[in-house]
Amino acid sequence: MKPWLRRTLGLLPIVGGGAGLAVLTTVIAGQQDLNALGAIILVTFALLYLVGIVAGLWMLEDHRHAVALNLVFWALQVPQLISPVMTYVFWAPANIGVWWNMTTSQSGFAYQVGSTFQFDLLNIGSNVAVALNAFALVCMLYLCVLYRRQYPAIEPEVVEDVATLPAADQMSP
Questions:
Q1: What is the domain range of residue 106?
Q2: Domain count, the chain
Q3: Percentage of residues of the chain with pLDDT beyond 90
Q4: Which of 67, 76, 80, 156 is the most exposed place for a label (fewest CB within 10 A)?
Q5: How many helices (H) and strands (E) would you count in the chain?
């Protein structure tokens, strides 16, 4: 990977995770009465932002698991769902994508910089909408290519060669 691309893929999650933790801090500071489920949701998103920061640091340091951790971090940002049953929105540091509100049959293009998270259960009366963060999707697909290069699939010939090896008890010391 080119150094400028590794640095970019490292800095984006660090900046997004930092912005997310800042947003999370303001949300926590503004909460008057926080129940157990709300606390679990906030801690979960705090951990996701921390994963992004660690993934970015690992990418900058060229850690051997950096690509895999970044792949997970970006994959969690691709889908966005709003419905009366469940709402899931998570992105950091950017959301550039398309959305479709199935209730009102409207669609559009969205672009935002910063960080956001939302997780709701049983939000009765909410519209049904789906969105796709294309920015995160492009990052994720590129990381998939890098991951496949880093961990290539086992070729069938290799599997056959391993199958013909003698058992451990038949090997001489």
A1: 3-150
A2: 1
A3: 64
A4: 156
A5: 5, 6
